[in-house]
Amino acid sequence: MLQSFVGITTFTIPETILFFKKQPNQKRGSDILPPLRIYNLFISHSWSYSYEYNRLVNLLNNAPYFRWRNYSSPKHDPAIDPTTRVGREKLIKELANQIKPASCVLILSGLYVSYSYWIQREIDLALYYSKPIIGVVPLGGERMPSRVRGVADEIVGWRTQSIVDAIRRHSL
Fold first, then answer.
1. Where are the domains of the chain?
2. Which of 22-26, 108-112, 144-148 has the lowest mean pLDDT?
3. Could you say which of 3.30.43.10, 3.90.580.10, 3.40.50.9200, 3.40.50.300 is the CATH number of the domain covering 37-170?
């Protein structure tokens, strides 16, 4: 119902359309936020360089009001030799199985230079499955490799809120 009083327009909202109506015996404050979405994420990684990956995982785990599921699998399977054709094909299939269910792909730009072959395969798979790509500049870094910059939906710095906001904006 719309009411006007001395040039000020006010709205009266019927109780039946309130989304967070307090129920009897409901604790105070429990009607403030709706349930949080769980974001399915794939984070670029390298078996031999996991420091940056682990820092990002900890950052996301400690982000307030943010829930996520990690589809990356940075553990090395010694039965797979990535230097052989068969090993590379198996790893690419495993990466595809990790990226396919993700709602967003995070590319750690600090890894790109040293591990560009595998990071490029992750980018290729993200593009193939039409996944949004967020480039994350490492702490203290200023540059983003042009191959990442050219495909990323957004480039963010190493700040929890910047990364989480980009994930929320771009996730499918």
1. 37-170
2. 22-26
3. 3.40.50.9200
